[in-house]
Amino acid sequence: MGDIHTVYLAALFVGLLLCLMSGFPVAFVLGGVSLLLAGVGILFQHFDASFLAAMPQRIYAAMTNDVLLAVPLFVFMGAMLERSGIASELLDGIGRLFGKRRGGLGFAITLVGALLAASTGIVGATVTTMALLSLPVMLKWGYSPRLAAGSICAAGTLGQIIPPSLVLVLLADTISSAYQKAQLAQGNFSPDTVSISDLFAGAIVPGILMVVVFLVYQVMLTFFRPESCPPPPETEAAEMTISLRVLLIRLVPPLALILGVLGSILGGVATPTESASIGAAGAILLAGFGSEHRKHANIALLFLALAVISKQVIFSTFDVPILAERFILAVPVLVFFGYFAIALLRCVKMGAIASSTTETVRLSSMVFMILIGAAMLSLVFRGFGGDEAVQQLISKVPGGPYAALAAVLAVMFLLGFILDFIEIIFVIVPTIAPVLLMSGIDPIWLAILISLNLQTSFLTPPFGFALFYFRSAAPPEISTRSIYLGVMPFIGLQLLVLILVAFMPSISTWLPYTLR
C-alpha cells in the first residue's frame, strides 16, 4: 500500500498545483481536490473513509476557536484606522521632522511604516497610502524611483512581523496545534501551548531590528549614493518644520492604541480577543472624530487609560471599598462611552462602519474558508500517509534538525513567490511543523522564523502583494522593472534579519520567556 499511497500523494500535489496556478479560488481548490482524491481512494479501497468523519469536528473547532476570533476584530481595527487619516498625519509630522536632512523622507517612511504596522498591520492600506502621499514628493525632490519604490513597499511589509500582525495571529493557532501534536507523539499527555502573546512578545525585538536595519541601509545610501536621496530644495526646506506640541498630538493616538492593545496582551490584563476589541473601539474613536477633532479622541482614550490604571494598579494595591471602587470607575467609563457613542454615530453617518464591516467580512470569510479547505486537505493528506512521508523525508536531510529547518525555510521562501501567506500557514506549516518540533526546535523561535520568511513573500515578484498595491498607486513613469529592482535590496535585508534570528534564537525567545 505504501507505493500506491505515494502515487496518491503525488497526484494530490500535482492537482493542487495545477488548480492553484489556473486561478481557481484557493479554498475550493484545497477542499475540492482533496475530496476528489479521497473519493477515488475510497472507491478503490485505498483510503479509510473514517478520516473524513473528523471534518465536522474540525470545522466546529475552527469556528469556536478563541484565538481565531481575534482575526475579524484586528481586521476591523485596521480597516477603521485606514479611514481615520492617521497615516497622512504621521507622514506629514515625521516627514517634517526628518525632511530637511538628506534621505529624510526615506527615514520618515520607514518609521511611519513601523507605527502603522503596530496599529493597523494592513499591508495594502499602508503601501497605497504612503505611495499616494509620499511618492510624488520624493520624485519631485529627485529621489531615485527605485529607492522610493523599495522604501515604501518594504515599510508596508513591516505589518507582517510587528505585532499585532495577522500572520502572527494565524501562526499562533497553527504552531500551538503542531506543538501539542508533537508533544503527544512523544508521550507528553499534558502538552504545553503557544499563545498569541508569546508570538507577539517574540516578534517585538525582531521587528525593531528590522526597522533598524532598514534605517541603517538608508543612512548608508546618504554617504555612498547621495544622488539617490537628495535633501529638499531650499525653497521647501524652510517649510519642513513642526513644533514639538503638534508632533506629540499626532503621535499620541497611534502610540496610545499600540500600548492599549499590545500592553494589555503582554501584561496579561486581557486576552487577545479582548485586546482586539479595545483596538477596534479605539479605531472607531480615531475615525469618528477625525483629524480636526482629534483632541476629543485623545480625551476619551485618556479616560479609558485612567479607568484601566485605577483598576489594575490603584485598587489592587490599596484597600478600597467595593462601592467606592465602582463609583470611582463609573466616572471615566461613562465619559469614555459618551465620546465613543458620538464617534460611532459619526462613523455611521460617513459610511465608515459599513465599508469597514464589509472589508472585515470579506477578509475574515476568506481566511476561514481557506482554513476549512486546509482542514480537509490535512485529513486526506494524513489518510494517505503523508505525515509519515514528510517525517521520513525530513529525517533523511543530512545535518540534523537544523539543516532540515534551513531546507524547510528555503522551500517556504520559494513558495512565497507563488502562494499567499494564508495558504502557506494553513497548508504547509501544519504538515512540517510537528516533525520539526519533535526534534527539539523551540516553537516560538520556529514561528518567528516562519513569520520573517513570509514577510518576504509580499516583496518577491511576480505575486508580491506590496508590489501590486504600489503599482496601482504609482505614476506610469515608474516602470515595473524599477519597482522590482527597488525592492531587491530590502528583500536581502529581510533575509539578513532572518539569518540573524536563526543564528541567535534569543532575539526571538528572550522576551516571551521573560514575561511568562
TrEMBL record:
It is a multi-pass membrane protein. GO terms for molecular function: transmembrane transporter activity. The chain crosses the membrane at residues 7-29, 35-55, 67-86, 106-135, 147-172, 199-217, 247-269, 275-291, 298-315, 327-348, 360-381, 401-419, 424-441, 447-470, 482-507. Residues 13-315, 330-506 form the TRAP C4-dicarboxylate transport system permease DctM subunit domain. Keywords: Cell inner membrane, Cell membrane, Membrane, Plasmid, Transmembrane, Transmembrane helix, Transport. GO terms for cellular component: plasma membrane. It is found in: Cell inner membrane. Its main location: membrane. It holds the Pfam family DctM. Part of the tripartite ATP-independent periplasmic (TRAP) transport system. This is TRAP-type mannitol/chloroaromatic compound transport system, large permease component. It comes from Phaeobacter gallaeciensis. The lineage of its organism: Bacteria, Pseudomonadati, Pseudomonadota, Alphaproteobacteria, Rhodobacterales.
